[in-house]
Amino acid sequence: MKFNTKVIHAGIEPDPTTGAIMTPIYQTSTYVQAAPGDHKGYEYARTQNPTRRVLEQNLAALENGADGICFGSGLAAMDAVLKLLKSGDEVISTNDLYGGSYRLIKKIFEPFGLKSKFIDMTRIENLEKAISPDTKLIWIETPTNPLLTIVDIKAVCEVARAKGIMTCVDNTFASPYTQTPWTWVPIWCSIRPPNTWAGIPIWCWVPLSPRPRSWRTSCISSRMPPVVSVARWTAFSSCAASRPFTFGCSAPVRMPARSPLSWRPTPRSAGCCTLD
After folding, report:
1. Of 110, 112, 115, whose CA–CA distance to 89 is shortest?
2. Which residue has the higher pLDDT, 238 or 138?
3. What is the pTM of this model?
């Protein structure tokens, strides 16, 4: 299935109740169960929602991932990933990542015992030197916000794979049309997918392995409302087949020759639904 077809059709089926071709907005908070735990796949809106589920499946297909979990904000997605760690674990990240991500690590999680290092990841030898026995997560942001620094995802993941370290990529600016980190990420990948900086924002955590247990995301995360889920999918699917995806920047960005990424950014086009 080609990219434009995935945008419009992947993960989307007619409504089983009415046959509606467009995904209905399910705004209920609870679902009837035949017995405790005996339900049709939906028990509580924070954990599962049919409208949000369509968006999650669609994004997972676009990103070539196993599944998707949509959140109410990028930091909510990152918060859920960091809570996979425990006190004493260490995360290594880029030294010019988004300020909110930096503060989440330093101000919120460090007081609970999480250790962190921020390095120049454009030089792979810096990462190799920074890794310690406590390193459990490498957090990549590329292109970075706001300096647009490019990190070689493949090279970082090769180092992480050799050490058995979990790797996440914050795909903060690039869309899946230009960058799919799952080609190289060895364990997990956290992403910030299309159009987070314009229009209706969406954030999604797309793992390579099967979906984590629902109780974890239900207990600790801020999930996306169903109205936002259907509005976001409609916005970027309506322009997928007829408009080019553009990088949310005032000028083209050149990728270093060493990078494995296939990068084709263009200036923002007036009137185009951009995937930032």
Report:
1. 115
2. 138
3. 0.75
